[in-house]
Amino acid sequence: MRKRTNPKGRQNKPEPQQAALSYPARLNKFISNAGICSRRDADLLIAEGKIKINDKVVTELGTKVEHGDEVKFNGKVIKPQNYAYILLNKPKDYITTMDDPENRKTVMQLIKGATESRIYPVGRLDRNTTGLLLFTNDGDLSQKLTHPSYKIKKIYQVELDKPITAYHFEQIAKGITLEDGEVKVDDIAILTPDKKSIGVQIHVGKNRIVRRIFEHFEYEVVKLDRTMYGQLTKKELPKGKWRNLTEKEVVNLKNMS
Q1: How far apart are CA 239 and CA 9, in angstroms?
Q2: Predicted pLDDT of residue 114
Q3: Catalytic residue among 99, 100, 126, 161, which?
Q4: Active site includes 126?
Q5: Distant-in-sequence contacts of 9-15, Cβ < 8 A, 24+ apart
Q6: Please, which pLDDT band fits residue 5 given cuts at 50, 70 and 90?
C-alpha cells in the first residue's frame, strides 16, 4: 500500500476510450451512451414515457434509434458521446459532486478539460477522504462498479488517533453491526509498529462506511486514503492529478465479476 508518484506530475491529454454508437441503436443504449443513466434505468425512463423520439413519446422497450433521429429527455435533446474513463487521485477538501450551491471546491474542478464528454463520478469519497475516484459516462459500467453484488475490491489506508487494540481488530475482522446493518470487511491488516495505520479491504459501498467502522469503537480517523479501486492503483498518479484509463484497464473493469 506504499504510495508511488510520478515526479514530473504529468497528466494524459484528453482522449476518449471508445467510439460513439453505431446505428440503428437500441434506445436504452443510446440513453446510456449519452451519459444519462444505465441501460436498466433507461428502460424505466422509456416505460414511464419520459423519452421522445422526433417529438413523439416512446414507451416500447427495444425501440431503435436511427441516425439523425432527435431524442429528448425532460424536454432536452440528448446526444451520444464517446465513452470516457478518467481516474483521479483526489486530494483533501474537495467534495464529490457535480456542482455545489455553497461554492465549495468540487472534484469536477480537478478534471476540467479532461474530456468533452459529460462524465460523472462513480460512487463518492467524502470531503476529507483522499485517493482513487473514477469518472465516466458509461452508465452500465458505473452501475456495475457500485452494485454490491459484484463485490468490487476497494482498499483503504486508515490512520487512527491511537493504536488499535487486538480485541477491536478481531471484532472488525469478524464483522460488526452498525445502525444500518451488519458490516464485514474482506481483509484487514496492521501496517505500522505503532498500530495506528491500518489497511482495510472492503466491497460494501455504504456511506462513510470505513470511518463508521472505526468510530464505532471510538477511534478518530485522522486520515483516510483509497489506494486501490478494483485493479486500479495510484501508481505514478500524484495527488490532485488525473489520467485516462488504458484500453486494457477498461476491459478488465468490464470483465470483473
Answers
A1: 9
A2: 93
A3: 126
A4: yes
A5: 9/238, 9/241, 10/241, 11/241, 11/242, 11/243, 12/242, 12/243, 12/244, 14/84, 14/113, 14/114, 14/115, 14/116, 14/244, 15/115, 15/244
A6: very low
